[in-house]
Amino acid sequence: MQRNKVEPPLNSHSIQELEDLTLKILSRNPFGLPVSKIGPALPPAYRRLKKHLPAVLGDLLARERLYSWQPPQGKAKSPPHSVYSTEPLARVVAQRTVELLKPKAMTLPELKKHFPTPIKTHVMLFLEPLLKDKVVKRHPPSGKTKKFGLQDPDPLEFLGSEIKKLFDKGTRLGFADADIADAVQRHGKPLVEKHAPTLSLSQIENAVFKAMTALKPSASQGALVYIPDLRDALRGIFPEKESFDRAIMELAKAEKVQLQSHSLPDTLSEEQKAAMIENLRGGYFMAIGKRME
Hints:
It is a single chain. This protein has helices spanning 12-27, 35-41, 53-62, 89-101, 108-112, 123-132, 155-172, 177-194, 201-215, 227-233, 241-253, 270-275; strands at residues 67-69, 83-85, 106-107, 137-142, 145-149, 225-226, 257-261, 277-278, 284-290. It is α+β, with helices and mostly antiparallel strands. The protein has 4 domains: 12-85, Orthogonal Bundle (Arc Repressor Mutant, subunit A); 89-149, Arc Repressor Mutant, subunit A (Orthogonal Bundle), CATH 1.10.10.10; 155-194, no CATH class; 201-290. Helix 4 packs across helix 6 (123-132).
């Protein structure tokens, strides 16, 4: 008579091994995995333990060794499986989005190609906080497709033909290009002057810290962020160099941030100097970090 094989009980050593393997698998998958994909990724010798994964994942979550994200149910009949990751997915997706948009603006379908399911289905959900904080900007539609970028959209890209018609008409009327350009600038200057919102120190601190964390998640723990990158990320809030520089120096004066100067200022080009902040001692601040209390 053949006896049924009895599986030995799961001991503390086996639990620890399963935890270590789970963390290792998820560390190789920064956008996380549902439990249904963690089990098959286990080494063959450990797959018999996959039925214990839900309990192990729950324990890792409770100890804050892992994070979980629940995709929206939408029209599905049952809730989708949670996605487990070693870092908060909102932070990971935000960081990757900023990296993708650094070279150029992209459409939503273009962004989705860089993320796995189910994140790609809900990319807009992760984009909304970045849009709200003005780390990412909406661009006007080019044709039928809207784009997203880190920089404010260039009006010339969207108004090029209209601007050409204006200059062509001015030329026919006998005006020089320089005079037409001056007229356009004088026409627009009152509008620019009206758009100069004054932010409180707490509003500046909130906007700057959110942008820093989006550029580099470890900035929340004091890691330094390159000032030219932060300037680009906040151009929608501080469009002029002076307003950005003034905001950062206000935070430094209030001891909210620490600033690091470039060690070799004489090697900097004029363009690089302009992207940094003059430290009034003949040098330039190149990096900023949250001051940890």
